[in-house]
Design goal:
76% helix
């Protein structure tokens, strides 16, 4: 990619990544619930999903996927209901994502579980497919090999996405420390649960 193209590409996708969306809200929620370090597996799963969608967008396969609304409908309903159910459990101070009100109530949370949630959130959002499909192809130079360009573009997109996920999760962790310091465990669970329910509804209706 030429310096001129990069000068437009990087600010464009920085704005896309930093804008609040389902993935960033999920990062904020998990930062509040389990902290920055333990939310990293979700980020890896989300980045895998974004990378897959972006690669398919460059290859043009996203055009076919966007013509199959049934596929997205299944992902949206199942994924949205799952996230909403997690939110209800968190609101009730139950489940593996909820912050225990006593040390004995802690339930182990598998990293692959968080990674799966991030991946599902990334790939089941049709707006994400449409957005990446419409933005990525114009930056492709048809006179040059596509593979090297794809590697550069995906590296930039994923780096920007990861940086924004870290920023949102860090903000959630700061709020977590503030509320826990005041002993508001139940309030924190209800805030994170409400956000998770909102993400689930957003996913189903998006």
């Amino acid at each position: 990619m030429s310096p001129e193209t990069l000068a437009v590409f990087i600010p464009t996708f920085l704005f896309v990544s930093i804008t609040p969306g389902m993935c960033m809200t999920l990062a904020l929620t998990l930062g509040m619930s389990v902290g920055l370090r333990r939310s990293l597996p979700m980020m890896w799963g989300e980045l895998l999903g974004v990378g897959l969608v972006a690669a398919l967008g460059v290859l043009g396969i996203a055009a076919l996927m966007l013509k199959l609304p049934t596929v997205f409908a299944v992902f949206k309903v199942v994924g949205g209901l799952y996230l909403a159910w997690l939110g209800v459990e968190m609101w009730r101070s139950r489940g593996r994502l909820a912050i225990p009100e006593s040390a004995d109530a802690s339930i182990p949370l598998a990293p692959w579980d968080l990674a799966l949630r991030g991946f599902i959130t990334a790939v089941s959002n049709p707006k994400g497919w449409a957005f990446l499909f419409s933005l990525l192809p114009p930056f492709i130079d048809q006179t040059s090999p596509i593979l090297p360009q794809m590697v550069v573009m995906l590296s930039i997109v994923l780096t920007l996405e990861f940086s924004c996920l870290i920023a949102y999760a860090s903000g959630g962790q700061m709020l977590r420390h503030l509320l826990l310091k005041q002993g508001n465990v139940r309030l924190l669970n209800r805030i994170t649960g409400t956000l998770m329910i909102g993400i689930g509804i957003w996913l189903m209706l998006g």
